[in-house]
Amino acid sequence: MTAIVRLAGVTKRYRRGREVVTAVDDVSLELPPGSMIALVGPSGSGKTTLLNLICGGDEADDGTIAGPHDTADWSQLAIVPQTIGLLPELTMRENVGLPIRLGAPAATDVGEVMERLGIGLLADRPPEETSLGEQQRAAVARALVTAPGLLIADEPTSHQDEANTDRVGEALADVAASGSCVLVATHDGRLLDRCTMVFHMRDGVVTGAGDGVGVDAT
Ligand code: ADP
Ligand code: MG
């Protein structure tokens, strides 16, 4: 099956004065459609940097990345950033519907996806009048209103309790089951249980993929 994303020898270095940090070190990966893939690794191991490279938010120093970010077809890529990234001047509903307003084809009803993530009653509030967990679920909902070929989520349950982690996990797993590739950086065992493939990351190096058995979620 044709991969949705293909990385070959991807390296990213950060320079801090004289110090050079290799945040992503010679990573080669292929991400297939119809999969929910976990990226697991300690804090500082390079997960967010790698996700930023894959979604085109940052440029690699070496190597190549083929994927939706270089087609300029933004309906094919959805992102749930670690920093959530709602626009404060829009209501929760307007934030969730923003990809559609920007021209991406709607795959599902905005109200429906908000209900599903337990934020239906908050639709008319500005984000600042909601909890961080609710804002994070709105960011997940915003990624679900289109049918992206690739959905990238950076620790999307970091502010969720168990019931809401299950809501987020089920929604992401459904997107994968419908044929998308879902790539999720996470430490969360409840989310990992739903992943079909697990990559481990340490010091910028991706050490391998498995079927989720024996995952060390540290
Ligand atoms: P993770 O998401 O796994 O916690 P990150 O990708 O955020 O890891 O960070 C990987 C490494 O790169 C860390 O050592 C971090 O300090 C460093 N780093 C991340 N962003 C920057 C930046 N903008 N400038 C310098 N160093 C950075
Ligand atoms: Mg991170």
Arrangement of strands in the largest sheet: 5-6-7-3-8-9
Q: Which parts are unreliable, with pLDDT below 50 for 5 consecutive residues or more? A: 211-218
Q: Using the alpha-carbon principal axes, give the shape.
A: globular
Q: Looking at the chains present, what oligomeric state does this protein adopt? A: single chain
CATH topology: Rossmann fold
Averaged pLDDT, please? 92
Strand content: 25-35%
Walk me through what this model shows:
The radius of gyration is 17 Å and the shape is globular. It starts with a strand and ends in an 8-residue tail after the last strand. 26% of the residues lie in helices and 28% in strands. The protein has a single domain (5-216), classed as Rossmann fold (3-Layer(aba) Sandwich). A six-stranded mixed sheet has the order 5-6-7-3-8-9, with helices on both faces. Strands 2-1-4 form a three-stranded antiparallel sheet, with helices on one face. The longest helix has 16 residues, at 162-177. It is of the alpha/beta class. The chain has helices at residues 47-54, 92-96, 98-101, 110-116, 132-144, 162-177, 189-192; strands spanning 5-16, 19-31, 35-40, 62-66, 77-80, 150-154, 181-185, 197-202, 205-210. Bound molecules: adenosine-5'-diphosphate (ADP) and magnesium ion.
